[in-house]
Amino acid sequence: MISLELELNGAKITCDVEPRESLADFLRERCRLTATHLGCEHGACGACTVAVDGQATRSCLRLAVMCQGQSVQTLEGLESDPTMEVLRRQFHENHALQCGFCTPGMLMMARDILLRIASPDAAVVREQLSGQICRCTGYAGIVKAIVAAGQVLRRAGAAKN
Amino acid sequence: MKAAAFDYVVPKTVAEASASLVGPGAVAIAGGQSLLAMLNLRVALPDLLVDLGGLQELREVTATASMIRIGALTTHAAIEDGNLPDGFGGLMQKVASRISYRAIRNHGTIGGSVALADPAADWPGCLMALGATVRISGLKGVRSEPVNDFVRGQYSTSLEPDEIILGFDVPCTDARLRWGFFKVVRKSGAFASSIAFAVAHGRGGPISVVLAAAAARPYLLPRIAERLRCGETAEESLRGAVAQDVASLIPHDDPYLMRLHTSTVLRAVREMQAR
User: What confidence tier does A5 reach under pLDDT thresholds 50, 70, 90?
Assistant: First the structure.
């Protein structure tokens, strides 16, 4: 076992972990943060996407021990995040989920896209989202929701200025 | 699936990393974006994982008038975002932006990609087209080798067990670099079925054309490069040269692969000519 210190959703934590534990298993099994879903466990589906030091990360493709001293954000930590609030509303409005399995990863990636690219159009969203797999919706609702969220955030930004 | 058990160390110096790597079953890990999938699927079963993430000198990027030195731990995302001095007219930025998906690019590194030497990887071919040299450190010291010699075959390089990649020296000249890059993927972010790079250092300068994802490793294409150097522009002549180059790389006479790779190379060449 290795002693791991990291910042998880804003709180400093220390925990003993096995070297072979993925960040995803660490979050789900040790921290009981089960918003992070595990689909394929080899980087193909994107369901387990979280943010490590602010960067979108597949938590199945990162060992927990590699996050020593880093900051990890999961969906649970973004309840009052302004971008996530808009995304949640737009996912609801645009019917962007059915079974919900891919949704946490979709939301984490959608937030990452909107933080990097201001008000992306549908083509950009589709390109940026191509690493996330959804087997229910056919993506149309998800793409619409992210485009709409980008527009809402841009209007909000414009209103503030 | 879950990875099988292994030990884990984070060396603080390059010498420490080499000393750890000579042990039985030791494997180096950089960004881990290929290795973690292999661990989870238990295709890779190391006894010891040596995490290179603590080696600061592998993160350094420096530029001189004649070359850019890129640390092995530079991520695809850092290159995509233009965090490197760009001596290559945007070629490396474009190549980086088309590797896998953003979440992978945030952690995957240029050194890890070349060390793994997947035949369908982008960086080995791109660095070959740019005439780059790889810098390697081991127990006997530091050595350099052209990337073209370093990559031996499918997942095979000249790296000895104690050696790690420090980074790459990529030559850049004052002459404007003209380039073309084309790759065929079934869906964006998937491994490529064909990748071509064409690079010309100014008008009348040296020209390199590389085809990757066609054979066990990327190859420089000599016939098309020579015709371009001679100023040939006729479509039929260029197509003939590419077809000859491609035919020498594909073992079985497959009409689909011939058309696929020939067309990929010609598109990269045309993009270069149009710049």
Answer: very high
A57 touches chain B (CB under 8 A): yes
CB-based contact A19 B103, cutoff 8 Å = no
Domain count along chain B: 3
Tell me if A42 and B101 make a contact (CB, 8 A cut-off): no
**Which pairs with CB-CB distance under 8 Å and at least 24 residues apart come from B139-145?**
B139/B15, B139/B18, B139/B19, B139/B22, B142/B166, B144/B169
Does residue B6 belong to the interface with chain A, where contact is any CB pair within 8 Å?
A: yes
Q: Find the domain containing B35 and state its range.
A: 7-54
Q: What is the pTM assigned to this prediction?
A: 0.96
Query: Which residue on chain A is closest to B36 by alpha carbon?
Result: A61
Is B33 an 8 Å CB contact of chain A? yes
Residue among A22, A25, A62 minimizing CB distance to B107:
A62
- Residue A27: the pLDDT is 98
**CATH architecture assigned to A2-77:** Roll (3.10)
Q: What are phi and psi of B129, to 5 degrees?
A: -65, -35
Which is it for the CA torsion B147, B148, B153, B158, positive or negative? Answer: negative
B3/A159: higher pLDDT: B3
User: In this structure, what CATH number is given to the domain that contains residue B255?
Assistant: 3.30.390.50
The domain A80-160 is classified under which CATH number: 3.30.565.10, 1.10.150.120, 1.10.540.10, 2.60.120.620?
Answer: 1.10.150.120
**Residue pLDDT, tens place only, B193-210:** 999 999 998 777 889 999
The answer to whether A124 contacts chain B (CB < 8 Å) is no
Question: Is the reported ipTM for this assembly greater than 0.90?
Answer: yes
